[in-house]
Amino acid sequence: MSPTFRFAPSPTGYLHIGNARTALWNALLARKSGGTFLLRFDDTDTERSKPEYADGILEDLAWLGIPPDRIEQQSERAARYAAVLEDFRARGLVYPAYETAEELDRKRKRQQARGLPPVYDRAALLLTEAERARLEAEGRKPHWRFKLSGDTVRWQDGVRGECHIETASLSDPILARADGQVLYTFASVIDDADFGITDVLRGEDHVANTAVQIELFHALGANLPRFAHHNLIASATGEEMSKRTGALSLRSFRAEGVDPLAVAIVATLTGTSESIRPLEGLGALADLLDLSKFSRALTKFDPSEITDLSVKLLHARPFAALREALAALGIAGSRAEAFWAAIHGNVSRLEEAREWWGLLMQPQNFAVAETDFLAECAELLPAEPFGAESWSQWVGAIQAKTGRKGKALFMPLRLALTGREQGPELKVVLPLLGRAEALARLVPALRP
Ligand code: GLU
Questions:
Q1: Structure confidence by residue, pLDDT tens digits, 306-344
Q2: CA 5, 6, 8: angle at the middle one, nearest 5?
Q3: Which of 283, 339, 365, 393 is the most buried (most CB within 10 A)?
Q4: Which pLDDT belongs to residue 420?
Q5: pLDDT of 27-86, one tens digit each?
């Protein structure tokens, strides 16, 4: 069977870096193996799931460069889940339980007080027909629990190796609530089976669910996928990744103008044995992926790694790769490439190039003091064409004539020529400006 990976977010908020990491690993491993990347919206919780979040997740995945090959939605599969529940009922695999949430809570508290694990006591299994009838007559509707085998479930985890869990230590999971709504574990297994999922790669917060899910796969008579549970990451700055608050969300990085490849590299490689570094693209990132590279511990990451990497990627990009994006900012024409070569080291986001384009490539006069000094400099400006040596020749001449050096020499020139105290090297600015524009900036009266 061709590999099929899935990413299964609930559309109850926007994706944060932690979710993106799971999505990226699944999408890139699918890509690398020539398989399918399926996006499944776990939207059975109709109160918290919102279509705008589903749209947002799709947008965010597209922005990262990993649009899904196939999309499924749990909210459209209620009939299928109900049919499986009916089948399980007929086969005696599930049993009705009538406890209210409060009653269950009281049971758990009593168990905890006695130092026992808060595992469901299966009281509902002992109900007689008559007791059940009485509860129903009271108007109680049952929820449905799956009867775990109590055996040891084993699986070979792609990240964690040999795993085993005694299902006797777990509560029989509720598959469907009294109002008929099915719960995550049940819907997830039916979907994974129906959609031919071969690989379930998700966070290690789902390890305990896996034992239950394996028993459900068996009950369905379905093939088991390979399971792998990656470590989790947390922000070193203490900021919580929260779908609800939007902290460390992909959109917050997008709004900052961060390169999506930087987000992808940091999200994917944090918590692995690979170091975070600029890569050419998602293909190169996919080449590095191997489940054995996940570290086993919770890993902290600093969001500034993303912004730093984004800047490195921008500086390393060849002009050809940016031509269109720069043109969209109005930076186009025969001088665009030389301009980018001159200023790229001075911008941390592509949009900042627009300001430099205005400062350097359009006629400007910046108000500066020291007009006498600048007039002297103007007289000493070498003839065109400006070459690599023009700048040092000019500076040499200014030094010889005025005795100035260092900041006293450079700062008035920088301010007059660029309008900023910091920026690209003046020796590359000069050929960009050309002689006529440089003269007009030094001495406004010389503007033709
Ligand atoms: N909706 C679940 C979650 O986001 C999916 C878990 C899974 O991959 O099975 O935690």
A1: 999 999 999 998 999 999 999 999 999 999 999 999 999
A2: 165
A3: 339
A4: 95
A5: 999 999 999 999 999 999 889 999 999 999 999 999 999 999 999 999 999 999 999 999
Task: Name the residue with the closest Cα to ligand 1, atom 4.
Answer: 9
Q: Which of 10, 200, 207, when mutated, tests ligand 1's pocket best, judged by the most ligand atoms within 8 Å of its CB?
A: 10
| Residue 107: closest CA among 94, 123, 92, 95 | 123
> For residue 357, which of 338, 378, 379 has the smallest C-alpha distance?
338
Nearest Cα to 430, choosing from 376, 403, 374, 392?
Answer: 392
Q: What is the pLDDT of residues 225-248, one digit of tens each?
A: 999 999 998 888 766 666 666 678
- How many angstroms is it from 78 CA to the middle of ligand 1? 18
Give the Å distance between the CA of 287 and the centre of ligand 1: 25
**Environment class of residue 2 by beta-carbon count within 10 Å: exposed (0-12), middle (13-18) or buried (19+)?**
exposed
DSSP 386-434: P-TTHHHHHHHHHHHHH---HHHHHHHHHHHHHSSSS-S-HHHHHHHH-
| Cα gap 153→211, rounded to integer Å | 6
Per the CB < 8 A criterion, the answer to whether 355 and 334 are in contact is no
Query: By the 8 A CB rule, do 228 and 199 touch?
Result: yes
Strands 161-166 and 143-146: unpaired
Ligand 1 atom closest to residue 202's alpha carbon, by position in its atom list: 8
Nearest CA to ligand 1 atom 6: 8
Integer Cα distance of 135 and 141 in angstroms: 8
Give the position, in ligand 1's atom list, of the atom nearest the Cα of 205. Answer: 10
Residue whose CA is at the smallest distance from ligand 1 atom 1: 9
- State CA 410 to chain mean position distance: 44
CA of 428 to the centre of ligand 1 (A): 53
- Asked if residue 173 lies in contact with residue 212, where contact means CB atoms within 8 angstroms, the answer is yes
Q: Quote the mean pLDDT of the chain.
A: 94
Ligand 1 center from residue 38 Cα (angstroms): 13
Q: What are the pocket residues of ligand 1 if the criterion is a CB atom closer than 6 Å to any ligand atom?
A: 8-10, 42, 184, 188, 202, 206
312: tokens are: 């490195």
State the Rg of the chain over Cα.
32
**Alpha helices in 260-419, H assignment, sequence order:** 260-269, 282-288, 304-316, 319-328, 336-343, 352-361, 371-380, 390-402, 406-418
Cα of 352 from ligand 1 centre, angstroms: 39
**At residue 419, does pLDDT exceed 90?**
yes
Residue 448: the pLDDT is 77
pTM for the predicted model, two decimal places? 0.86
